[in-house]
Amino acid sequence: DTGGRVEGLFLSEQTTGEWQVLLKKVGRNWATSRLHFVNRPDVSLKILAKFGGGEYRVAVDIAGTAVEFLESVGRMPLPPYIKRSAEHDQRDEADRQRYQTVYAASPGSVAAPTAGLHFTQELFNVLDERSVERCFLTLHVGMGTFKPITANTLAEHSMHEEAYAIPIAAAEALTRAKRQRRRIIPVGTTSARVLESQPAGDFFEQTSGRTSIFIHEPYTWKHIAALITNFHLPRSTLIALVAALTGLDEQRRLYALAIAERYRFFSYGDAMLIE
User: DSSP 3-state assignment of 226?
Assistant: First the structure.
């Protein structure tokens, strides 16, 4: 109502017309403020509750789902270090394609699982030619994945829950791989967390749920033999997971090499295979 510009990131739709969002620059009078979408000023948003870390619950009066509405009025939620103009531009359509895996199937993540961005249909064709079997599961990346570790020890860090699903085709493929003693190599730390959330043994079942597993040293791996992952930032739960696989000394050596060779970090950066 004041004419100020507020930036919002959609997290989830708890019930029809009520969203969980992150808001920046909403101001002190959030309880009485009405927010309007820049390119749909006829649609307003009322803040219902304020939580910690910039998270709010809001009410929006629209027809249809949040995903349908935001497809038409929203922008791809890129990480803040990727600079784009405040208005829609030609890059937004390109980002909608690039900041998304080619195998994405169901909405729900607040960010892309970046290791998967390296895969294309052409690369899948090469893997098929080499008889590398693949299967797909779902983990909706949540804000907790990107929460920096601020506790004095890893054991004191509180990991947020994230929703996941293992379809029957994936469960059967993973079971075959375990029983045939073939390596299971997840693409990304998110996939690794889903697999390691499952019971030990050589049987996977179709399932869905939520995981809050925090993998760090010392850790005994149950299922995975190697990992494809991007280069992660210090004091993150992601780099702690990498150290649990490589060992802390080897991880430090790898990252020193990456810095010396000027490998690219962040979402559109390089990836590595570690085992």
Answer: coil
